[in-house]
Design a protein that fits this description.
5-stranded mixed sheet, 9 strands, alpha/beta, single chain, about 160 residues
Length: about 160
């Protein structure tokens, strides 16, 4: 469990179902107790799908999911009711940055050594569970964009050319 300060000035308790075993009952119960219940999806895809269906029906308050390394569930299978998604350390993050804030938004990632991939404003890969063309770009190329950029930032190099 983790406690953090939320906007309303109350402590927010985050409870994650343990041992990489999806447990919708426990995650929903955490929500009823005014905590953020987070369903660990584990590595058993069938069980994760069944528990996602259950929590989506049972949860009356916001809830989240934890996606461990090796999870077989695609992002398109996570219901919209999941308001928080916990990813493994080192996972990528997608950001939309608009001028005049592109440099200000992306600079901390450049300084931290992240790899940058231009998603070309195409998020169909989330819905279709297919990797769409994304191209590796230098941060200078991204800073030069005139209007906005959708970028995937990752601590590890992603071999998109082999996935497309």
């Amino acid at each position: 469990m983790v406690a953090t300060r939320c906007v309303q000035g109350q402590d927010l308790i985050i409870g994650v179902t343990p041992f990489e075993l999806p447990n919708a009952r426990l995650a929903a119960a955490l929500g009823r107790a005014d905590a953020l219940g987070v369903l660990d999806l584990g590595r058993d895809a069938a069980r994760a799908r069944a528990e996602l269906t259950q929590i989506n029906l049972w949860a009356k308050k916001p809830w989240g999911v934890r996606v461990p390394s090796g999870c077989a569930i695609g992002p398109h299978e996570i219901p919209a009711g999941a308001t928080t998604i916990l990813l493994p350390f080192g996972s990528g993050v997608a950001i939309e940055a608009k001028q005049p804030y592109i440099r200000e938004t992306l600079d901390p990632f450049e300084k931290a050594g992240f790899f940058a991939y231009n998603l070309h404003n195409n998020y169909l890969w989330v819905v279709e569970n297919k990797i769409k063309p994304a191209t590796r770009m230098s941060f200078e190329e991204l800073y030069a964009k005139k209007y906005m950029v959708d970028v995937l930032l990752s601590r590890r190099e992603i071999p998109f050319e082999r996935l497309n």
